């Protein structure tokens, strides 16, 4: 079996791409994509019913490592998941919006 997972670069994502952010709460709170939904990797197995059914569903973390593991798992479960290469670091570096829920200055943690 190949270790390759479906992957897309930030620059290739549509503006309205459905995004699932799998970082931990402190990382999410520091800054996230405006349209992203949050489901920490550590809670994934117990919250399978909360996974959006968008096709494709873009999975993001800080740099792409955790999201790649989540994509490998989700694709095995039949979800049309795609890893966001470079994660939120590349998201911010390409000039895409980063927001916070409390109005504080966003950052990638």
TrEMBL record:
Q: Which InterPro entries match?
A: GlpE_sulfurtransferase, Rhodanese-like_dom, Rhodanese-like_dom_sf
Q: Which PANTHER family match?
A: FAD-DEPENDENT OXIDOREDUCTASE, PYRIDINE NUCLEOTIDE-DISULPHIDE OXIDOREDUCTASE
Q: Where is the Rhodanese domain?
A: 13-100
Q: What is this protein called?
A: Rhodanese-related sulfurtransferase
Question: Secretion signal: which residues?
Answer: none
């Amino acid at each position: 079996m190949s270790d390759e997972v479906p992957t897309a670069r930030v620059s290739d994502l549509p503006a309205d791409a459905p995004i699932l952010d799998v970082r931990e709460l402190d990382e999410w709170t520091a800054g996230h994509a405006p349209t992203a939904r949050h489901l920490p990797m550590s809670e994934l197995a117990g919250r399978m019913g909360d996974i959006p059914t968008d096709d494709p569903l873009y999975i993001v973390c800080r740099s792409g490592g955790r999201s790649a593991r989540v994509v490998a798992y989700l694709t095995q479960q039949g979800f049309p998941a795609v890893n966001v290469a470079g994660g939120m670091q590349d998201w911010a570096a390409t000039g895409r919006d980063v927001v916070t829920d409390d109005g504080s200055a966003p950052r990638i943690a």
